[in-house]
Amino acid sequence: MNAQERKDFSALLRNKGEWKKLISLLEDSLSYTKQIPDKIELYQEIVSIYQDYIPDDALEIKTHVSILKLKDDHLPSLEVLATLYQNNEQWNDAVKILKRHAALIKDQGAPLLLAAADLLREKLNNVHDAYSLTKQALGLQKDYLDAICQLITLCEDKHDWESVVSYLEKAADISSDVVDKVSFYLKASKISFEKLSSNESTLALCEKVLAIQPHNVQAIFRVSKVLIAQERLKKSEILLIDLYARFTEKQKQEKKECSLLLGNIYKQEDQIEDALFYYQAAFDLGESSIELLEKIATTTYVLAMKHSTKIALWKKAEDLYRQLIEKNDALTFETAQEAWYRIGVSAQHIKAYDRAIVAFNTVLEKDKTHALALQGLIELSVLTERFDLCQNNIALIEKLPQEHYDVVIYTADVLYQKFDQTKEAIRLFTLVLAHDGNISSHFLHKLLEVYVNSEQWNDALTILNKLILLTTNTKEKIKYNYAAATIVRDRLGKSKEAISYFKKVLDEDFKNSKAFSAIVKILTANKDWVQLVRMYRQMIKRFDASDVVNVDRLFHLWRDMGEICWTGLQDAESAVTAFQISNTLLPNDSKIKEILKDIQRQKDRVDSSQSIERLHHELATNSERIDIYRDLAILYRDIDCIDESMCLFQALELLRQINDEERKFIAQHRSDEWMGVRNRISDSLREGYIVSPDQDQRIDTLLTLMGTSVSSVLARSTQEIELNDNHKVDLKQDKSVLVQSFVHAAHCVGFDTLPSLYLLPIAENKINAYTTQEGPVVCIDLERFNQSTQSEIMFLFGRHLTYLLPPYHLVSLAPSGKYIEQIWRVLLSTMGFSIKNDGNDNIKPIISRLKKTMSTPVMKQGRALAEEILQDSAKDKIQTWRLSLEKTADRMGFILANDLLSSAKQITQYNDLELPCDPKEKLRQILSYMVSRNYFYVRNELGLSIKVQSFDQKN
User: Fold this and answer.
1) Alpha-helical runs (H) found in 231-271
2) Does residue 510 carry a pLDDT above 80?
């Protein structure tokens, strides 16, 4: 079939409407057609059949694809394919065709790219590629508004708000429609304000709107919001007031929004009345939101706080918050809590205390740590005098976090001031103190008051130390340190620690006389002279000597320091220096001149004391030198030591070397009446200052250890020594001179229980002491007494009572010196030492009896002492000891006699222990003792010293 035949046949099939046969014919013709245009024409005819007669999108698409294979830039097919792919939701193919089409037409392809981008965004959710194609479209056509709008949408999807604002501005600049232009600017300003928080950009965009529409409400609102955010409240207020005046009755919504903005402005400016006016206006215009009701309630509450006495405002505030509470379902937890709290405060102000208590408790039911509600209940406890409101909430108050410790402090103050609950108050105060690092001085003062009033001084001191660290004010620091010092000194009894606080006062104010006087008083009481002088020196250094105002103070400091150096430290040199300086400050002070004279006299005394020491040493080594006695006596006399001088002059008198002047001195100071010992002779005084220094202390110790046993075995009865009870004196009833002298002597020697006294009528002219089975005994014949003076009888009593003291009562057991040596051998034998037998067979039974009476520890200790004594190479140990005891007894008698001549008479006439003693040697010994320092000390201790006024006292 040739071409013409095919054409006719095609027309015939078209007329008959046999479209499928026609398509087959056209497809068959394609195989014989060689020219591309002809082929395209055939394909287009097939496409028209699929479009108009037998619609089949798939076959139509296939046909257009075949056309594009023949001619890839066949624009009609590209256009149709894009539509077909979209109709059949073949979005990817549609995008490809649109992009292919756009690439062919180049500059005119922007709409096609935009359409492809739209499909990618809406159908394929491929924002990234959609954004890229839209950007390409805008690149082809710079002022393509649709592409810009598309980019705005795409950037919104990506939340790229900066780009959104940029494209909106570009769209507004391009748009020729005023409404659209304003819309673009407004939208851009909204995003700048809400999304970017860019106040500058928002203002710039709104200004563009107002340049086109000066009274644009949205723009003005937005500008106002920006200005409010920038706290440029006045400018915003002017804009809104002007706008508010322009609104008509129909613009209720706009006027309502304007009212809200003005209310917010006035609230920020603390113009509460104006804020409340505009909030109420918004409410009257139909704004019934929870937020507005809360603002009205809050503003009313704040206004009531400003005018706290206006009961009507408090009532209105309570009513508004109760309205708010009724909308409980719409309220947040925090808002509901705050509403109940403010209901409580309002009710409290209108004295509806029960309602206030209910409101505060309602808050605490939901939030146990609501500090303000707790404080409200504490305040109500004060107002209603209901301690239970305070007491029931203490546990909750203790658990409040640190930021609410002001409520804890307030509660503690109420407990202390109102309810007298000091213990509970301190517990809360210390809780704050332990955990709050930023304690205020006001709080510390409260706590200090509590501690002081409750006399908790250590705690009060702790608070004062905190106040000292906290304050930078000099006056306050001085006050706190002084208070701390007085507490430490007066309440805690720590005077030394108080000094450190007083010193801190002086560090801040060196002229503070009270602090310095307090230190002086403490150091003086403690006799801490070194530290006291150091304090004076420190004070003196603080003063400027060139300042005339300080002269008087410096004078007193130097003078007082001189007196301390003189009387306390006995530092004459430092004292003189201080007094001389004080004298240069205020010359001709008579008191200082007199003190300087005293110091000089004391220096002379010190020099004399050194000479005395030297002469005593010489006298101890050469007692025959009469000149030493005289020089010593004169030195003692010159320094007013009259008693020592009298002793030395009496020694010269005994030695018959005294001159008339010295005899006159003795006569001047010697008493006409006998003066005896006034005080008891203690063991320490006797052993340290009276016992002869050559007396073997080891034998003393041994005899003391064994004394009880020896006495119990060897003591004789009074009948054995021929003492008749008729001769025994009743020491309590007999008031004679003899008995009174004996009692006084026994007391002075150191007897707690008096020995017995026997007065014998036999004229044997003697006195004896015995240790008997009935106890210690002293016997004296009347002849001896009648022939003796008071001094002589006291000498004899003192001497013989000494033999009755432990350990010397061994002497009072023995009838003779030989018997004493036998007793000594008995003791040694008893302790197991081998002693040569002297032929006395009575010793063995005595030894046996002694062993039975002595305990093992005593025996052991006694043997150790005896071994030490026997190892000594000296011979005649017991006789040597007896001779030393004789010296001790002479000294005791001499002390009680208090008269050298009487004592010398007795010493030279009698030898009670039957020892080979030279009377002159005994006299020399007592004379040597009389001029010794030991004797001077004993006289002073026993009240024997001659007391006369010194030269200083007389003047």
Assistant:
1) 233-246, 252-268
2) yes
What is the token pair recorded at 530?
């070194």
Q: From CA 560, how far away is CA 566, in angstroms rounded?
A: 10
Distance of alpha carbon 692 from alpha carbon 704, whole angstroms: 17
Position 331 confidence tier, pLDDT thresholds 50, 70, 90: confident
Is pLDDT at 378 greater than 70 in this prediction?
yes
In our burial notation (b when 16+ CB lie closer than 10 A, e otherwise), range 897-913 reads bbbbebbbbbbeeeebb
Reply yes or no: is the peptide bond before residue 857 cis, omega within 30 of 0.
no
CA 450 vs. chain centroid, Å, equals: 18
Q: Which residue has the tokens 């013989």?
A: 800
pLDDT at 610: 75
Confidence bin at 500 (pLDDT 50/70/90)? very high
Asked if residues 792 and 905 have their Cβ atoms less than 8 Å apart, the reply is yes
This prediction's pTM? 0.43
Contact 110, 137 (CB under 8 A): yes
Which tens digits make up the pLDDT trace of 359-377?
999 999 988 989 999 999 9
φ, ψ at 624 (rounded to 5°) = -85, -10
Helix, strand, or coil here: 776? Answer: strand
CA distances to 7, 302, 340 from 306, in Å:
104, 6, 20
DSSP, collapsed to helix, strand or coil, labels residue 900 as helix
How far CA 62 is from CA of 40, 69, 90, 780, in Å, comes to 13, 11, 14, 171
Buried b (16+ CB within 10 A) or exposed e, 821-849: bbbbbbbbbbbeeeeeeeeeeebeebbeb
How many separate helices (H) and strands (E) can be counted in the chain? 51, 3
Residue 359 tokens read as 């409101």
**With DSSP H G I counted as helix, E B as strand and the rest as coil, what are the percentages for the chain, rounded to 5?**
75, 0, 25
Angle at alpha carbon of residue 397, lines to 395 and 400, rounded to 5°: 120
- Supply angle C-alpha 238, 241, 244, rounded to 5: 150
CA distance 423 to 386: 19
d(CA 515, CA 503): 7
- Classified as helix, coil or strand, 768 is strand
């046909």: which residue's tokens? 63
- pLDDT of amino acid 948: 62
CB 773 within 8 A of CB 715: yes
Beta-carbon contacts of residue 49 (< 8 Å; ≥ 6 apart): 19, 22, 23
Sorting pLDDT into bands at 50, 70 and 90, what band is 842? low
Tokens of 340: 């109940």
For residue range 447-456, what is the model confidence (pLDDT) as tens digits? 888 989 888 9
pLDDT on residue 227: 80
Over 17-46, what HEC string results? CCHHHHHHHHHHHHHHCCCHHHHHHHHHHH
Phi and psi, residue 775, nearest 5°: 130, -175
pLDDT (0 to 100) of residue 461: 92
Q: How distant is the alpha carbon of residue 99 from its chain centre?
A: 84
Mean pLDDT of 328-347: 87
Q: Which residues pair with 760 in a beta bridge?
A: 781
> Could you count the other beta carbons within 10 Å of the beta carbon of residue 476?
15
Tokens 């006062």 sit at which residue? 505
**Closest alpha carbon to 221 in 259, 165, 274, 172:** 259
| Cβ count within 10 A of residue 11 | 11
Q: Helix H segments across 54-198? A: 57-70, 75-87, 91-105, 110-122, 127-140, 145-157, 161-174, 178-194
Short-list 383, 341, 331, CA closest to 362: 341
Alpha helices in 543-688 (DSSP H): 551-567, 572-585, 590-621, 626-638, 642-654, 660-669, 683-685
Per-residue DSSP letter, 107? G
Task: Count the neighbouring beta carbons within 10 Å of the beta carbon of residue 752.
Answer: 7
Q: Which residue has the higher pLDDT, 435 or 938?
A: 938
HEC string for 824-849:
HHHHHHHCCCCCCCCCCCCHHHHHHH
